[in-house]
Amino acid sequence: MTSQRTRLQWRMLASTILLFLLAAVVADAQLSPGFYHWTCPHAASVVKAKVDAFVEADRGLAADLMRLHFHDCFVRGCDGSVLLDSTDPNVLTEKSALLNNNSLRGFEQIDKIKMELECACPGVVSCADILALVARDATVKDGRCRYPFEEVGDTFTRWD
User: Fold this and answer.
1) Was 51 annotated as part of a binding site?
2) Is 77 marked as binding a ligand?
């Protein structure tokens, strides 16, 4: 009976280790600079071109676009929920919440970027990823960032 119990404990330990290894592999498959390389190869360049044009026209918009990404990630993670409009006038979304209403800017620009990406790659690039790409490109375009970036293809990555 003791050897059977020991075998069961070893199996449980092996299963737990296998589960952690599987979780590590899955966690490594997150967004990377080349994430849309095959599914929407021009996604990053489309976003960069649009952000560059928007920030050229209005320098203050760079900070607003970065702030949109912050507000999206601040409440329950980066999920694009800050872009949602309410379908019920009695329900507030993050976009229309008291603290965000009339203080966040850049929704129209995000909509234009999303529309262009939908034409190029329908249903591929998520709103959360668009906000992340826009925030990255707005930071670089702003020029006051002292965080070193290296251009790789049509994306920017951090120097380590």
Assistant:
1) no
2) yes
